[in-house]
Amino acid sequence: MPELRREPVSGRWVIIATERAARPTDFQTNHHQPVKNSFCPFCEGNEDKTPPEIMAYRGNGSKADSSGWRVRVVPNKFPALRTEGEQNIHGEGIYEMMNGIGVHEVIIESPKHVVSLTELGNGNVEDVLRSYRDRLIEIKKDKRFVYGLLFKNVGVAAGASLEHTHSQLIATPIVPQLVENEMERAEAFFNNSSKCIFCDMIQQEIAVGKRIVTSTEKFISFTPFASRFPFETWILPKKHETHFENLQKFEIDELANVLKNTLAKLESALDFPPYNFIIHSTPFNIQKSEYFHWHIEIIPRLTNIAGFEWGTGFYINPMPPEEAAEILRKK
Amino acid sequence: MPELRREPVSGRWVIIATERAARPTDFQTNHHQPVKNSFCPFCEGNEDKTPPEIMAYRGNGSKADSSGWRVRVVPNKFPALRTEGEQNIHGEGIYEMMNGIGVHEVIIESPKHVVSLTELGNGNVEDVLRSYRDRLIEIKKDKRFVYGLLFKNVGVAAGASLEHTHSQLIATPIVPQLVENEMERAEAFFNNSSKCIFCDMIQQEIAVGKRIVTSTEKFISFTPFASRFPFETWILPKKHETHFENLQKFEIDELANVLKNTLAKLESALDFPPYNFIIHSTPFNIQKSEYFHWHIEIIPRLTNIAGFEWGTGFYINPMPPEEAAEILRKK
């Protein structure tokens, strides 16, 4: 009998096919096949092929938009939103719209043509996470924007157009619906129980153990109880932390290790799958929050979204998260 | 400047790239390429290759699970949910789950190996819609199920595993989250305005005209103001109708015509794109509803869903619906 499971934070229902579980080798389509491009605008030496850099971690004496950097942040050449202008909310009868203002940046994670974050040295991964934090702190100062989403697309099937390892940051003038939904449900849980729903979940995952992928002093990664996708994996700080951008240096170092390790396990189990990861953090305009806890969601893109999912918001997952975690723990 | 638009029923935000609009020829990937399979279990003569039929429209004297049918409904051989058993809601600490009971049926739309609904004669399309209605009426009698989603996946990129033209029906023991969300927002709109939000939208679309694809006496198809995807198209009855299964014969005939015509326009403009369509109707356990209005959502699958969409619930649509409608009207 398949099982219907509800993800407590989002309220999403997932159908877990507990009977005929898939094996990692069942997901052979759309794998991320590293192919060297003939020309890559993200490689060191090609700095003039991107818009001028916003920020970079550089060696002493090296100049902006020249070589000598470790991590480099540039505006997206084809931005989804534009930085100039005001929000200007207006209506048209029943409809509501506003100007598409926002920020759309690309974090180039290495000067070398490397196609996975897991190929980077630990210090380099720490630099990447530090750049995430630094950009959020900077963008937060612009009061037009209330949210900043950090995300990563790896592989064509996951929406990547360039293979050189990179992440993106999009800041928006409104809190995204999915985040708002998670916040509302987490707040309702807090109002009922005086507890953070994420802290509760972490406690239960540690007690049960069967969905844990890695656990360190400060961080845990596990396959969520109601995973939408095979091998979906979340990373959370064990302590109640609201904003990603409040991360301290020693926490960044440990997170870099957990992130790289978790991704390496996925790559090993699934032969370099296409994947997305996204970071959900508390909106900029909420200073303190007792109920929202930042987290990273890693989504391997192995299955197709079809009519049933589009029509219901249900997901069908042929891989029970308990089995996925067991496979990942061994990698 | 891109435009942020909000879909009034779901509350979804969409980024419409009004500046650099795409052209239909920009979407060249993943097109639905009809390929004849060597063996097709849905073709007439192969009735023993599917589970025994639940219902079929047949010529006089022809027997169940033999040839002589026009439309045939069979259980899905690999069902997402199982018909036997009880709901049995239970918890595990913070988590909630239940048995995966439900109905999962396949509507085989033609005895011939045809790969698009648009290749069927009008009478045949009417039979398909009539089978949708008849199955909903039948399944509704089982009080364990509160919702039935009719949907269609066309092309591998849209999740189809067989090309022979078919639709699916999944009935669930709970109202899907997306439908519940639409119902809640529609109810709130009704409580504020004493009007059905869909009726209001239809009125505005007719007045404005620029997003209409087809309009007949009883039905309208248009590209929604906040289309998530290029060429997304909705079909609605102009009169306030709550349940798809309440359709009368003369309405079915007209809807068959509008559906076939709208799909033919999409196939002509986009060279047989992969697509999904889904039907949202009022849940079985709500007899009357002044605020919810059934509708068909057709989603061509031309663009990729990536980290930003997964993290926010926003969609980026490079094709303004006004331009899409203009292209479709001319086809």
Automatic annotation (TrEMBL), chains A, B:
> In terms of domain of life, where is this protein from?
Bacteria
**Active site at which residues?**
166 (tele-ump-histidine intermediate)
Residues that, per the record, bind Zn(2+)? 40, 43, 113, 164
List UniProt keywords, sorted A-Z: Carbohydrate metabolism, Metal-binding, Nucleotidyltransferase, Transferase, Zinc
Species of origin reads Candidatus Scalindua arabica
User: Which major enzyme category is it?
Assistant: transferase
What's the cofactor? Answer: Zn(2+)
InterPro entries linked to this entry: ADP-glucose_phosphorylase, GalP_UDPtransf1, GalP_Utransf_C, GalP_Utransf_N, HIT-like_sf
What is the protein's given name?
A: Galactose-1-phosphate uridylyltransferase
Question: What Pfam families has UniProt attached to this entry?
Answer: GalP_UDP_tr_C, GalP_UDP_transf
Q: Does the keyword Cell cycle apply?
A: no
Galactose-1-phosphate uridyl transferase N-terminal domain: from which residue to which, for each copy? 3-176
Family designation: Belongs to the galactose-1-phosphate uridylyltransferase type 1 family.
EC number(s) recorded for this UniProt protein = 2.7.7.12
- Ranges for domain Galactose-1-phosphate uridyl transferase C-terminal come to 184-298
Alphabetically, the GO molecular function entries are:
UDP-glucose:hexose-1-phosphate uridylyltransferase activity; zinc ion binding
Question: Cofactor: bound how, per the entry note?
Answer: Binds 1 zinc ion per subunit.
Example GO biological process: galactose metabolic process
